[in-house]
């Protein structure tokens, strides 16, 4: 997936996470994460964001995430949405359950 | 798992772009939850809500709760995108909004069947319900109700409907014709009749009066927009102990007559007709299902 612009998704409401994905030439994924539950779940949230981007084939991106206690499914949904918006793409790949 | 016949007293709308409500919605005791991708989601956030509802259906466990998604109108260009996501995520029931004709149901079903077939989901797995929200839809209610075997019910969407009628919502008289049409159409097709939302969440008295009216008419349940509306609605639908005792007595007399090979059923000197037996049977089934659901919630 090729990123062409800044993409944001999510809100600052409780149980949500605001994810911003920006294009970057190289250097992999840089992630700036702040969370209200950083001590307990910081590593898990970071892992979910990185895995979601890897599944989309995003290799280089500057990611900022402000977490307000989101579940993993919300982290995945917001990261996916921000990445698709950054790629200006609607070629969604939904997986059957 | 999707079930065509089940209890649907309270069907609670959940805004599709609200992660907190999507996480918690199953704890309040409604029979169904309806994730909304339509009216509660702004046009700029349609994709975000679709991702969120897809991921919740895909990853979260909601127990035995019926999971419904209200998609956007297929003519808006958004409805098909919604279907692509939620059918693959395993939604139980697709709620089609603004259903004006049987063709709307047929068009939606065709897309659902295509998505199921392309993804090795047995064709027919995904059920549907149709919301009728216009004068055209009300007049076509019978054809709509018979348009697909996937339909579990038809519902009234009153806000758009009263606008189409050039009126506003008041004491319910403005909805009487639509409710009766929808109810008779649903019964003719053997599916559920489901009532519209009551928007004033602070008016419990008004809500109970409306719920009592639609139960009297024969509706199976109602959409709710706030967890506070669930318990009062379930109370309205719960048969009283007096009615249950009468129904038990009717069924006892019926079974006794059957055992004797008698075609005539009598109770306390009065003859019991077949419709009375059917109503008694339904009442006991409703009470039993309600009790089972309460135990499941605990």
SSE layout:
The complex is a heterodimer of chains A (97) and B (298).
Chain A lengths: L6 E3 L7 E7 L5 E7 L2 H18 L5 E7 L4 H15 L11
Helix pairs in contact in A: 1-2
Chain B lengths: L9 E6 L3 H6 L7 E5 L9 H14 L6 E5 L8 H10 L4 E4 L5 H17 L8 E6 L2 H5 L1 H5 L5 E6 L1 H7 L11 H14 L2 E4 L8 H14 L3 E4 L5 H8 L3 H19 L5 E3 L2 E3 L1 H24 L1
Give structural notes.
The complex is a heterodimer of chains A (97) and B (298). Chain A contains two helices and four strands, in the order E-E-E-H-E-H. By secondary structure, chain A is α+β, with helices and mostly antiparallel strands. With 298 residues, chain B is α/β, with parallel strands linked by helices. In chain B, helix 3 crosses helix 4 (102-118). Chain B starts with 9 loop residues before the first strand and ends with a helix. Chain B folds into two domains: 10-237, Phosphoenolpyruvate-binding domains (TIM Barrel, Alpha-Beta Barrel), CATH 3.20.20.60; 241-291, no CATH class. Classes of the chains: A alpha+beta (97), B alpha/beta (298). Chains A and B meet through helix 2 of A and helix 1, helix 2 and helix 3 of B.
Helix fraction of chain A by DSSP (H/I, runs of at least 4) = 25-40%
CATH architecture of chain A: 2-Layer Sandwich
- Which geometry of chain B do the CA atoms define? globular
Question: Sheet bearing the most strands of chain A, described?
Answer: 4 strands, mixed
The overall number of domains of chain B is: 2
Q: Could you give the order of the helices and strands of chain B?
A: EHEHEHEHEHHEHHEHEHHEEH
**If you compute it from the alpha carbons, what radius of gyration of chain A comes out, rounded to the nearest whole angstrom?**
12 Å
Detail the poorly predicted runs of chain A: none
Main pleated sheet of chain B? 8 strands, parallel, barrel
User: What share of the residues of chain B does DSSP label as strand, in percent?
Assistant: 15-25%
Low-pLDDT windows of residues of chain B: none
């Amino acid at each position: 997936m090729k990123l062409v612009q800044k993409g944001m998704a999510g809100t600052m409401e409780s149980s949500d996470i605001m994810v911003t994905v920006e294009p970057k030439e190289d250097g992999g994924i840089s992630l700036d994460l702040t969370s209200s539950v950083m001590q307990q779940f910081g590593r898990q949230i970071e892992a979910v964001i990185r895995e979601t981007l890897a599944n989309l084939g995003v290799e280089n991106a500057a990611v900022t995430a402000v977490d307000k206690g989101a579940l993993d499914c919300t982290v995945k949904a917001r990261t996916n949405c921000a990445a698709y918006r950054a790629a200006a793409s609607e070629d969604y790949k939904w997986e059957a359950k | 798992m999707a079930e065509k016949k089940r209890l649907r007293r309270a069907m609670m709308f959940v805004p599709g772009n609200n992660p907190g409500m999507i996480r918690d919605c199953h704890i309040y005791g409604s029979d169904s939850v309806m994730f909304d991708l339509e009216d509660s989601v702004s046009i700029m956030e349609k994709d975000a809500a679709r991702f969120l509802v897809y991921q919740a259906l895909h990853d979260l466990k909601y127990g035995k709760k019926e999971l419904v998604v209200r998609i956007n109108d297929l003519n808006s260009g958004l409805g098909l995108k919604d279907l692509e996501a939620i059918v693959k995520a395993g939604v139980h029931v697709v709620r089609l909004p603004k259903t004006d004709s049987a063709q709307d149901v047929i068009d939606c079903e065709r897309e659902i069947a295509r998505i199921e077939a392309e993804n090795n989901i047995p064709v027919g797995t995904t059920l549907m319900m149709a919301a009728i929200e216009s004068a055209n839809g009300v007049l076509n209610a019978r054809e709509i109700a018979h348009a697909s075997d996937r339909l579990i019910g038809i519902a009234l969407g009153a806000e758009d409907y009263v606008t189409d009628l050039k009126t506003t919502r008041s004491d319910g008289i403005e909805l009487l014709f639509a409710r009766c049409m929808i109810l008779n159409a649903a019964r003719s097709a053997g599916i559920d009749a489901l009532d519209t939302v009551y928007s004033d969440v602070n008016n419990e008295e008004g809500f109970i009066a409306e719920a009592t009216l639609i139960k009297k008419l024969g509706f199976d349940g109602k959409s709710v927009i706030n967890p506070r509306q669930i318990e009062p609605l379930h109370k309205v639908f719960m048969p009283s102990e007096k009615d249950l005792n009468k129904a038990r007595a009717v069924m006892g007399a019926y079974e006794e007559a059957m055992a004797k090979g008698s075609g005539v059923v009598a109770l306390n000197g009065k003859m019991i007709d077949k419709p009375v037996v059917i109503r008694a049977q339904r009442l006991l089934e409703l009470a039993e299902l309600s009790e089972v659901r309460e135990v499941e919630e605990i």
